[in-house]
Design a protein that fits this description.
The chain is an alpha+beta fold and 496 residues long. Helices cover 37% and strands 22% of the residues. Helix 12 packs across helix 13 and helix 15 (435-447) packs across helix 16.
C-alpha cells in the first residue's frame, strides 16, 4: 500500500505523520516547541526546531510505523504563517525563530502604516496590518540587529525552512503563505513592488513563490540516510496550515465551514474569488483557483490550558490537572455556566474586532461558582468567539449549513457538542484529529498522482468519526449566554 508523509511545523509543536491513502494515520511523532519569552510579549524558538527536528521526527515516525521507506510516495510540508526564521547563506540561522504571535514587531507597524496605509496594505495582501505579518518582524530585526540582518540570505517561513532541510536545494514558499509575509500581491500571487518599496526590501531575501502542490525537490541523500526514506522521495509544498486543515476536515466546497481549535482558533470557508473585508483574512487556497476566507481567534485551546494550569497550581502539589478531569468538571455544569461568561481574548482579539491590545475577561462570578464553572465557561467562550467569527463570514459568503471541527479541541466530545449547540449547526469531527497534517498529505498525494483530483482525495482520506447535532434546549440557553458575551465585548471595547 502507498503511504504519504507530512510535516506540520506549528508554533506550539512540530509533528511528523504518516498516512495511508485511506486517510488512516499509521504513525506520528511530535515535540513541543521550547518557546522562550526574553521580554513580555515576545515568543521565539531556537532554529533547530525547523532545521533539525523535522528530519529527526520523520525518522522516528517511519521507524515506529515499520513501513519500508520505499513505500512512502511523498512528503507534504505545511507550517504556521506569520512566523519567520532568518537564515544566512551558509544555511545557519542569523537569529531565532520569531513566532507569529510575538508582539515585539509592533514598534515597526506605525512606520509602515505611514508609508503605505493600513487600508492599502489590507487591500494588497488580504490580511490586516499588525504585528503578525512577517514584514513587521523583518523591519524590527533590521532596526535592532542590522549586522545580523545584513548577513541574512533569506527570511524563511517554517514551511520554507523545513523544505530546505529536506531537500538541501533552493528556498521555496507556496503562495498560500504569501499574504502573511505582508509582501505578496494577493491576486497577482507574486511579490509586490509596491509593498517591497514601502518596506525598503529586496525580493532577493525572500523565498521563491510557487503554487501549493508544487514538488520543490526530493529528499537529499543525507535526509534519506537519516530517515530511511528513498533519496528521490518528492517533497511537496502543501499549503499553509490553515488551508491544509480545511482540506483535512473534509471541506472542499461552498456550504461547509471548517472550525479549528488548537493553541489559537480559525473558522474558514473556501470561495472561488478573493474576498476583501477588514475583519477577515483572505489567502490563496491549497485548491487550485480557490481562496480561503477566514476568521481568526488569537486564543483558543491556550485559554483552556491556562485554566488547567491555574487549577493545578491552586492545589499546591505541583500536579497537573488532566484534560479528562477538566472536561468532567465542565460537563457537570449546565449550559451557560450559571451566568459565568469568559471572553477568551487573552492574547488580543482577532475577528471581527482586530484589537491586538485586548485582554480576556471573566464576568458573572459568584461564591457559588466552582472550578467546573470556570472550565465550562472557557469552552463556551471559545465557542462564542468562533460563532462571532462565523457570523462575520456568513455576511460575505454563501450560507453555511455544516461545520467541520478539528484540532485538539475536537478530541473533546463535550467541546464538540458545545460548538454544535452554540452555532446551531451540525458539527462533524474527522477520524484524524491531525487535520492539518492530513491536509498536507492530501495535497502531496494529489501532487504525485495517487489521486486524479482533490475531490476524490478528500473523499478517500478525510472521513467522519462522529456527528454532533444541536440540542434544542441547550441552544436556547446558549442564545441567552451569547448575548451576554456580546454585551461583555461591548464593555471591553468601551473601556479600551
Amino acid at each position: 500500500m502507498p503511504y504519504i508523509a507530512a510535516v506540520d511545523a506549528g508554533a506550539s509543536e512540530i509533528k511528523a505523520s504518516i498516512f495511508d491513502t485511506a486517510g488512516n494515520e499509521v504513525a506520528n511523532a511530535r515535540r513541543d516547541c521550547p518557546v522562550s519569552s526574553p521580554k513580555p510579549g515576545w515568543a521565539d524558538c531556537p532554529a533547530a526546531v525547523l532545521l533539525r527536528w523535522p528530519v529527526e521526527l520523520l525518522a522516528e515516525a517511519l521507524q515506529t510505523s515499520g513501513i519500508p521507506g520505499a513505500d512512502v510516495r511523498a512528503v507534504g510540508i505545511t507550517g504556521s504563517t506569520g512566523s519567520v526564521l532568518p537564515i544566512g547563506a551558509d544555511g545557519t540561522a542569523t537569529g531565532p525563530l520569531i513566532l507569529w504571535y510575538d508582539r515585539r514587531s509592533s514598534t515597526a507597524v506605525p512606520g509602515l502604516t505611514d508609508r503605505l496605509g493600513a487600508d492599502r496594505f489590507a487591500e494588497l495582501t488580504g490580511v490586516p496590518l499588525d504585528h503578525v505579518p512577517v514584514v513587521s518582524k523583518i523591519l524590527w530585526f533590521r532596526a535592532e540587529h542590522p549586522e545580523a540582518c545584513g548577513a541574512t540570505a533569506v527570511f524563511a517561513h517554517p514551511q520554507t525552512a523545513v523544505m530546505h532541510a529536506m531537500t538541501g536545494t533552493r528556498w521555496f514558499c507556496d503562495d498560500s503563505h504569501g499574504p502573511y509575509f505582508g509582501l505578496m500581491d494577493l491576486e497577482a500571487r507574486e511579490w509586490s513592488d509596491e509593498l517591497l518599496a514601502a518596506a525598503d526590501l529586496s525580493p532577493d531575501s525572500l523565498p521563491q513563490l510557487v503554487a501549493p502542490g508544487t514538488i520543490v525537490g526530493t529528499t537529499s541523500a543525507a535526509v534519506a540516510a537519516a530517515t530511511g526514506l528513498n533519496s528521490q522521495t518528492p517533497v511537496v509544498a502543501a499549503g499553509a496550515d490553515a488551508s491544509c486543515f480545511t482540506l483535512g476536515t473534509g471541506v472542499e466546497s461552498a456550504g461547509s465551514a471548517s472550525a479549528y481549535v488548537g493553541t489559537a482558533g480559525v473558522v474558514g470557508v473556501i470561495t472561488d474569488k478573493p474576498v476583501r473585508d477588514p475583519r477577515l483574512t483572505c489567502t490563496p487556497s491549497a485548491l487550485p483557483g480557490q481562496w480561503d476566507v477566514q476568521g481568526l481567534l488569537l486564543t483558543g485551546g491556550a485559554a483552556y490550558k491556562w485554566v488547567r494550569t491555574l487549577l493545578g497550581d491552586s492545589r499546591g502539589t505541583g500536579e497537573t490537572v488532566g484534560f479528562d478531569e477538566l472536561n468532567a468538571l465542565a460537563a457537570a455544569v449546565p449550559a451557560g455556566s450559571d451566568g459565568v461568561v469568559v471572553v477568551p481574548h487573552f492574547a488580543g482579539a482577532g475577528t471581527p474586532l482586530w484589537q491586538p491590545e485586548a485582554n480576556g475577561m471573566i464576568v458573572g462570578l459568584r461564591l457559588s461558582h466552582g472550578a467546573g464553572h470556570l472550565a465550562r465557561a472557557v469552552l463556551e467562550g471559545v465557542a462564542f468567539a468562533e460563532r462571532h467569527a462565523l457570523e462575520t463570514l456568513q455576511e460575505v459568503v454563501a450560507p453555511i449549513n455544516r461545520l467541520c471541527f478539528s484540532g485538539g479541541g475536537s478530541t473533546s466530545e463535550l467541546w464538540s457538542q458545545i460548538m454544535a449547540d452554540v452555532t446551531g449547526l451540525p458539527v462533524s469531527v474527522p477520524v484524524s484529529s491531525e487535520s492539518t497534517a492530513l491536509g498536507a498529505a492530501i495535497v502531496a498525494a494529489v501532487a504525485v498522482g495517487e489521486f486524479a483530483d482533490f475531490r476524490s482525495a478528500v473523499a478517500a482520506m478525510s472521513r467522519t468519526a462522529r456527528q454532533h447535532e444541536p440540542d434544542e434546549a441547550d441552544s436556547r440557553a446558549y442564545e441567552t449566554a451569547y448575548q451576554a458575551y456580546l454585551r461583555t465585548l461591548a464593555q471591553m471595547k468601551s473601556t479600551a
